[in-house]
Structures are given as structure tokens and as C-alpha cells.
Specification:
Layout (H helix, E strand, L loop, with lengths): L5 E3 L23 E4 L4 E6 L6 E5 L6 E6 L38 E3 L5 E6 L12 E5 L5 E7 L2 E8 L7 E6 L5 E5 L4 E4 L4
Length: about 190
Amino acid sequence: SNHIGKIVRLHEDGSVPHDNPFVGIDGALPEIYSYGHRNIQGIDYNPATGDLWIVEFGPQAGDELNIIEPGNNYGWPVVSYGLEYSGEFVNDGVSEHEEQGFVEPRYYWDPTSAPSGMSFYDNDAIPEWENNMFIGGLAPNYIVRVVVEDDMIVGEERLLTDEVERFRDILVTEDGALIASTDGGSIYQITAAE
């Protein structure tokens, strides 16, 4: 009945798609697509599968990567792999999403990665990066490369760990460069080695 912790899906003209999961359900806002999100920071489509992925903050740790499907509940504020800022467990430590009827994250970080913007690498300029996900890190300070196969996370690499920058957003250019912006106003460009 409200937009807090939700993904909303609309047409470009602001109208609600007729196949949204809550269309026609009494008491539900028809524009809601999924719910149970704490704080979404990045969103992109996997070019290999077409799946919609998000990265979101947990409280203290428990930052999540999720594949979004219509009508799913991703658990917040009932379950989390992180802790409240008071140091207490979220919901007395209940973290098993599936037992509660919630969708389990595809991946989570503990300790935190403080994720920010994200982008899939949809280019062949750096072949070993193709269809990998890149996510900015705010604390600790780095860019994380997430290796995705189908819908599973199979590896992680941390880039630019010595730069001491809060990486805010990531994008991939048409020629295959990875561009990252920081809170301090710096722009980084990563390209294939000559």
C-alpha cells in the first residue's frame, strides 16, 4: 500500500503496465513490481540472460545482490544477513529467507562492501570481463568485479584498492572502457592493456 522498499515499474508515459504483479489486487499499488528492499543503490540488466539485477545496502553488512522477478518479496525488514546499527541482530537473527517465504539473495557481503552504482560489462574489448558485473564500493574503497555465470556468482575481484576513493558510479563505454566516478569528483577510466 506504499512505495517504501519497493521497485516500481511504469511505462515511459507514467502509465502502469497491465502485467505488473499487483494490478487489480485490492489495497495494493499497481505500479509495484517487487518489495522487501532496504536501500537499492544500483540496477542493470545482465546482457547474457536479460535478468534484472540490483545491489542494495544491508544494515551493517548483509549487502545484497538480487535478481528481480515480479511480485517477489526480498525480505527486508524481516530478514537480513547484516546487523542493526545498535549491534543487535535483525529480527533476532532470522536470516533464512526461504523459510520465511522470501527470496534468498544471489550473493551477499559480510563484512560490508557498501555498494553503489553498478554496470554489466557488455563489450568484448576485455574478453575476460564480458558479462561480468562491476560495482562501486564506498567503504571499503574499491570497485568489485563480480563474475556471473548464468544466474550464479562464481567469483569476485577487487580493483583499485590502493586508491582510497569512494567509488560512486560505474558505466561501460561503447569502446569497452570502464568509467568510475568518485565522491571526491575524480573520474577513473580503465581500458584494455596495449
